[in-house]
């Protein structure tokens, strides 16, 4: 008998997404060990939650904490390391505070090569490759999604100039000019909100605007939802870059393109550069097709736009996608430093591939897996409620259909009052009156009476096409439908024709 039939199987933890991401937020967050389980307590007020994770069948890959009030014990960090999960501490302003992951062996030769890369030219070659990929992604996005060929051509020319950049400052200048062109093409992108929210949001929330916040002069502390979303997505990707660098044996703080600063991990920022266009393309598709909800964002006293915790949790679930996109670039940097190569087409064969497992796949003949972009939540354009099957929820869909029918009826009444419509109606009425007068003056033999019509002719009209009735009597389709259904009785002059249409010989 199968083991599943004899042993109790623990149920899946509902708080953990199918991608293995668990996001906790609120005040007084507690992460600790209790009876061999990882016990987590988070939330605010009545939405406070407390649950435990066992060591097996938990599916946890990332524990993302959004908040700055609470604690995590050393034994809990050890538990996460033992099960191969990572801990990430973020805030809603787009800043990574802490990233921890399973320990990776430190390769002294690789870190020494990383430290010497700025002086021996390896950093310049790697920087060219990273920025070339970034500019190529930006060019593709502005051409295909923003329909801006002029900006695309300008970015392409900048990418071609990378080959002649003989120092890192020249590479940085090209990247900066490309960013200026690129974000200029984004400035007029309209941001959708449900109809009930459009009058409740500030006017500057309705456009993407500039990438530079008036609060900081840079991307940090965004003042509208679109830029706040981009900052948070970049934060998620940056945490994955740190984990990827450590997994490859690199020092996340020792940058090649970004200058070393005490407040950031420069290599992680280098690593995210070629992946940014993919993140931005996913966000742009979201902004162009789905409305944002006012309830998902808060505006602080200084105008800073903050993302509510519920939406942060859903955005955190995009981490596996960015991890897959980052993985080959992390291995490229490590392999280039290890073997002194600067082309992605020539990897040092002796170097492992801990992120992509490409060596193992090549040995097994397995294809490289495709990266599937995260799914977005569909929101009703009327009220902002979830709308999994279309642009409107059931309630708003019915209201819209009713409103549409009312407007169509109003348009029909207005069309009926036009001079040409009244003229045609008058001509039709005169023609029918003339036909009725001629019928009254014509001698009749074996005339059909109303009782015969009701009992014999009308029931058999169900087998006659509406178009045939309308053509035979020279009437409209709606009037023909009323006659066939018995709601109207036509003029007696038509009874003989209808009898013949139904096959009745009188």
Describe the structure.
This protein has about 500 residues and is an alpha/beta fold. The protein has four domains: about 15-90, Ribosomal Protein L15, Chain: K, domain 2; about 110-380, Four Helix Bundle (Hemerythrin (Met), subunit A); about 395-425; about 450-505, no CATH class. About 45% of the residues lie in helices and about 10% in strands. The protein contains 18 helices and ten strands. It has helices at about 5, 75-80, 110-120, 120-145, 150-160, 170-185, 225-245, 265-270, 275-290, 310-315, 320-340, 360-365, 395-415, 420-440, 450-455, 465-475, 475-485, 495-500, and strands spanning about 20-25, 30-35, 35-40, 50-55, 60-65, 70, 85-90, 95-100, 295-300, 305. The strands form three sheets. Strands 1-5-7-8 form a four-stranded mixed β-sheet, sandwiched between helices. A four-stranded mixed β-sheet has the order 4-3-2-6, covered by helices on one side. A two-stranded antiparallel sheet has the order 9-10. A hairpin with a 2-residue loop joins β2 and β3 (about 35-40). The termini are far apart.
Whole-number mean pLDDT = 83
Overall 3D geometry?
Answer: elongated
Strand content: 5-15%
| Overall SS class | alpha/beta
**Major beta-sheet overview:** 4 strands, mixed
Number of domains: 4
- Uncertain runs are 1-12, 341-349
Annotated CATH homologous superfamily of the largest domain: CRISPR-associated endonuclease Cas1, C-terminal domain
Number of helices: 18
Oligomer: single chain
CATH topology grouping of the largest domain? Four Helix Bundle (Hemerythrin (Met), subunit A)
Highest-level CATH class of the largest domain: Mainly Alpha
């Amino acid at each position: 008998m199968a083991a599943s039939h004899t042993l109790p199987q623990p149920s899946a933890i509902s708080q953990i997404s199918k991608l293995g991401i668990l996001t906790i937020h609120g005040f007084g967050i507690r992460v600790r060990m209790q009876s061999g389980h990882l016990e987590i307590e988070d939330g605010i007020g009545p939405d406070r939650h407390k649950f435990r994770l066992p060591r097996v069948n938990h599916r946890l890959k990332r524990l993302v904490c959004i908040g700055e009030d609470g604690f995590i014990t050393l034994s809990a960090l050890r538990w996460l390391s033992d099960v191969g999960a990572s801990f990430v501490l973020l805030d809603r302003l787009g800043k990574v505070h802490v990233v921890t992951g399973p320990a990776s062996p430190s390769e002294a030769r690789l870190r020494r090569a990383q430290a010497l890369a700025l002086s021996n030219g390896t950093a310049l070659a790697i920087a060219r490759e990273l920025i070339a990929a970034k500019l190529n992604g930006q060019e593709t996005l502005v051409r295909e999604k923003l329909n801006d060929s002029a900006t695309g051509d300008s970015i392409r020319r900048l990418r071609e100039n990378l080959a002649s950049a003989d120092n890192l400052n020249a590479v940085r200048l090209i990247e900066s000019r490309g960013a200026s062109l690129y974000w200029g093409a984004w400035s007029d992108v309209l941001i959708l909100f449900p109809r009930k929210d459009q009058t409740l949001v500030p006017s500057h929330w309705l456009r993407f605007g500039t990438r530079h916040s008036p609060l900081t002069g840079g991307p940090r502390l965004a003042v509208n939802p679109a830029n706040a979303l981009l900052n948070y997505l970049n934060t998620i990707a940056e945490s994955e870059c740190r984990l990827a660098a450590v997994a490859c044996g690199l020092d996340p703080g020792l940058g090649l393109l970004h200058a070393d600063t005490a407040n950031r991990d420069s290599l992680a920022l280098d690593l995210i550069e070629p992946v940014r266009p993919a993140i931005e393309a996913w966000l742009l598709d979201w902004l162009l097709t789905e409305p944002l909800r006012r309830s998902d964002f808060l505006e602080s006293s200084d105008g800073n736009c903050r993302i509510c915790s519920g939406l942060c949790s859903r955005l955190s679930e995009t981490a596996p996608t960015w991890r897959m996109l980052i993985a080959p670039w992390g291995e490229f940097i490590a392999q280039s430093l290890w073997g002194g190569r600067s082309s992605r087409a020539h990897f040092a064969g002796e170097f492992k591939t801990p992120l992509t497992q490409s060596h193992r796949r090549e040995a097994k003949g397995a294809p490289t897996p495709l990266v599937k972009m995260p799914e977005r939540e569909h929101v009703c354009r009327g009220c902002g409620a979830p709308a999994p099957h279309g642009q409107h929820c059931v309630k708003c869909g019915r209201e819209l259909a009713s409103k549409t029918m009312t407007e169509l009826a109003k348009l029909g009444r207005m069309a009926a009052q036009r001079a040409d419509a009244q003229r045609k109606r008058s001509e039709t009425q005169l023609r029918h009156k003339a036909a009725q007068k001629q019928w009254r003056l014509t001698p009749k033999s074996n005339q059909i009476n109303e009782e015969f019509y009701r009992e014999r002719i009308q029931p058999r009209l169900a087998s006659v096409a509406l178009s045939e009735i309308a053509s035979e009597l020279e009437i409209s389709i709606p009037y023909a439908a009323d006659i066939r259904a018995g709601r109207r009785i036509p003029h007696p002059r038509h009874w003989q024709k209808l009898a013949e249409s139904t096959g009745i010989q009188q």
